[in-house]
Amino acid sequence: xxxxxxxxxxxxxxxxxxxxxxxxxxxxxxxxxxxxxxxxxxxxxxxxxxxxxxxxxxxxxxxxxxxxxxxxxxxxxxxxxxxxxxxxxxxxxxxxxxxxxxxxxxxxxx
Length: 110
Hints:
The chain is an all-alpha fold. It has helices at 4-26, 32-72, 92-104. It is globular. The chain starts with a helix and ends in a 6-residue tail after the last helix.
């Protein structure tokens, strides 16, 4: 099981790589497609192994979709339980704890 410290380092590394790709794209250098697919596969393997398919879905949503939602409306919570209760996912720690509580155990791992 990936611990919280390593999970945070993973997130920080992925964010740095994503920023690098974005900067290259802005400069007219298109390396995104050739390398990004491999990085996404590594993300998939690491997250799926620890949190299952559902966890990978939450992880990619938090990494890639939530930032643009927050830019449009930073004060709005964009994740909710089925009963409408907001899910706190503001930090890497929030995401880790959510995945640990909702995906790790749910996928039959202890």
